[in-house]
């Protein structure tokens, strides 16, 4: 309710709000403000990649760091040449090493079927290591699709 014609009770009618023209910002032209429509936030790689994609990247000469997060007894049964064994339970202690490696080249994490590696990549990303991916299907899928000489267990 208006008191004496004013919301403040002073007997003065308030000035109506000035209608803004389209394309104006408080009466001034938007042209004076920078446009951010072209700005994009840096994108992390997808959480997962496939064994075929990893093989394609390796064949193309891309330098990848493969990390096997299985336990040592699993690594003895089957392994991918050149992969570094860092059991999942030791990843927090090796975080600085993994982070430094990810600064140099993409890190591909794998396990038996892809569940532990996905959990590890999620944790690494929470710690700020963004240049890492989990290999879906793990070493089992690698054996089926890429290298049948890798023993399945």
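^ Assign residues to that structure.
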């Amino acid at each position: 309710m208006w008191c004496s014609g004013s919301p403040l009770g002073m007997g003065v009618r308030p000035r109506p709000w000035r209608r803004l023209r389209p394309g104006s910002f408080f009466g001034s032209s938007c042209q004076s403000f920078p446009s951010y429509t072209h700005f994009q936030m840096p994108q992390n790689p997808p959480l997962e990649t496939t064994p075929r994609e990893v093989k394609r990247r390796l064949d193309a000469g891309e330098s990848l760091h493969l990390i096997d997060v299985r336990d040592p007894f699993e690594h003895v049964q089957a392994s991918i040449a050149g992969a570094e064994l860092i059991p999942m339970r030791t990843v927090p202690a090796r975080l600085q090493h993994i982070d430094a490696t990810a600064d140099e080249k993409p890190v591909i994490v794998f396990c038996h079927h892809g569940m532990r590696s996905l959990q590890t990549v999620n944790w690494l990303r929470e710690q700020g290591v963004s240049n890492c991916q989990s290999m879906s299907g793990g070493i089992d899928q690698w054996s089926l699709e890429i290298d049948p000489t890798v023993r399945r267990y």
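Residues 143 and 150 are 5 Å apart (CA to CA).
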